[in-house]
Write a structure and sequence with these properties.
Length: 295
């Protein structure tokens, strides 16, 4: 996300696992801002249950399956990781290092926004709605359409020196019924069993310089229609738990991404058609809210 991050570990295998987990996100050239430092150790102790996350002010604590902390005042973090987890790069990132690094990134100029991010042409189409509204299902359909995914749940907004929308590509988590024929790893997400469908690797950093917000709702036919930006801003301002820790920063980010235009997408049980409507609207570079698409 254009921030300098230094990750250290005493074991080459642990560093290799981290490099594999973040290889798609690495950028060449000079990064901006003070460095973020994460130190890792591998331990032989077995995990003592699922990892628990506690946030108190500007400090985060991990307990249970790993033992670690992150401090936003010093932009530093540490974690001792069971060796079995250190040998699985995807789970290491999903359960430990993403949590620590994103906690620090979100408190140093990269504000989280609860939305999926799908690239249509040069535009990051931000699919917004509460949990269960269809963000991940649409993201999976976008992967099938050959579109780049920034995230299926959270994007990160950079305000200075200019607006940028960042993603952290990770597997798309959907219910098994929404991923027919997929055989792979399953995970518990918010207490619900989901499959983790991998996202193809793309060259270059996962970032866009312009965005359009699309609010999701359910209906009988797919329909994309323009709405007032203030309507989208109001909807995004209803912050769910986990996104309500940075009120001022969130308000500024929401105002920025809704300033140009905003839309409402009515979904059916056919996500592929909805993605075609989005791709037609935004990939052509047509951002005037004069046309309503339906299918």
């Amino acid at each position: 996300m254009d921030r300098p991050v230094a990750i250290t570990a005493g074991e080459p295998a642990l560093l290799a696992a981290v490099a594999e987990a973040y290889g798609d996100c690495l950028m060449a050239g000079r990064a901006d801002g003070p460095p973020i430092a994460l130190a890792l150790e591998a331990g032989d102790e077995p995990a003592s249950g699922p990892i628990q996350i506690e946030v108190e002010g500007r400090r985060l604590r991990l307990t249970g399956g790993a033992d670690g902390w992150a401090d936003a005042r010093t932009l530093t973090a540490f974690c001792r990781i069971p060796r079995a987890l250190a040998e699985r790069p995807a789970r290491l990132a999903a359960e430990v290092t993403d949590t620590l690094l994103l906690f620090l990134l979100c408190r140093s100029g990269r504000t989280p926004l609860h939305a999926a991010g799908v690239m249509c042409g040069e535009t990051a189409v931000l699919l917004a709605g509460p949990s269960g509204s269809g963000k991940s299902t649409l993201s999976l359909a976008a992967v099938g359409r050959g579109l780049r995914i920034l995230s299926d749940d959270t994007v990160y907004i950079q305000m200075l020196p200019r607006l940028r929308i960042w993603g952290l590509p990770r597997p798309v988590h959907v219910f098994p019924a929404d991923a027919p024929g997929f055989i792979g790893e399953t995970r518990l997400r918010a207490g619900k069993l989901k499959v983790a469908a991998p996202v193809p690797a793309w060259p270059g950093p996962p970032v866009a310089d312009q965005a359009s917000v699309v609010l999701l709702e359910r209906g009988e036919r797919v329909r994309l229609e323009p709405i007032e930006p203030r309507v989208a801003a109001k909807a995004l301002s209803r912050l769910e738990p986990g996104f309500d820790l940075l009120d001022r920063e969130s308000a500024e980010a929401i105002a920025a991404v809704t300033a140009a235009d905003a839309w409402r997408l009515t979904l059916t049980r056919d996500p592929a058609t909805a993605i075609e409507v989005l791709a037609e609207r935004f990939s052509l570079g047509c951002h005037s809210p004069a046309t309503t698409h339906s299918a």
